[in-house]
TrEMBL record:
The chain crosses the membrane at residues 12-37, 49-70, 130-148, 168-190, 211-236, 242-265. It comes from the Eukaryota. This is Uncharacterized protein. Keywords: Membrane, Transmembrane, Transmembrane helix.
Amino acid sequence: MAAQMPLDQVFIVSIWMEAVLYGFLLALTLASVYINLALHRHQSTHSRIMFGVGVVMWAIATVHLSLNCYRLIQGYVIHRDYPGGPSAWFSVLSSWDHVTKDTLYATQEILGDAIAIYRAWILWNQDCRILFPLVVLLIGGTISGYTVCGTFTEEHGTSNIFDHKLKSWISAFYAISFVQSVLTTGLMAYRIWSTERFSAKYRLDNRSLLPYLRILIESAALQLIAELIVLALYASGRNAQYILLEALTPVVGITFNAITIRIALRSSETFMNMKGEPRQHTSGYTTRPMRQTIGGSAMPAQAITINIDQDIETDARSDAEELDRK
């Protein structure tokens, strides 16, 4: 087996990666603020909920990064003479800063899972049948995640994150988070695909829901890959799992905001194109475009034009008699 990366090296790499990803999250959050201010009058209640959740996720990621910066100074400057060096100091699980930062990570994951369930529920027309397995997983993830954080406070300085007492709970939390992400993303993707397949036969133009499917899959892929890698690294007992673990807090926020912003921009572009089309005088009428949402971001469905032809027969003899009477 290859030698383990020392914790002091792992922590430097992990905080560097977290800081880079936090920069992306900050940019997305600012973009979300701009879009919400620009489209404030046209926003639904769901959109406002999503915007509020995005701000909360950014706040959690900000405090998490700040705590890691604090730990960086403590480990390499203030406690540089700690017995065993920085590696030994970082391995202490019961310190308030370690417990707090991991509690923030667990909260970010749980919040992301809860909002993904909400998005899937909205997209499935509030069908409660899909909620049961997802809510059960959410409850299991919440219990396992906060149990780990509570157990940290009881650990002694010689404890290790791979100890048997912790490993079962941590593995359960990682696994549940990954399965939850796969299920919610799969349910939303299937719903968009099935709707697109059904509406294709009635569509009179080239508007499609497939771009929304691509947005969902591309944006969720980063979080799914990160959660799978951290689960594999932890199961194999590698310290490198810390690198992905610290990165997951901003990654959850990036995934959430990326989906919300890209769908909002796509929907706004589609709506403006629909408004800019010249009106044509035709027999019959056109139904109003219906809207579906992915957790508040409007997804305009396709308008269906219904033409009504009326055949009117005229009796020539009746017309002639009418003219004679006049």
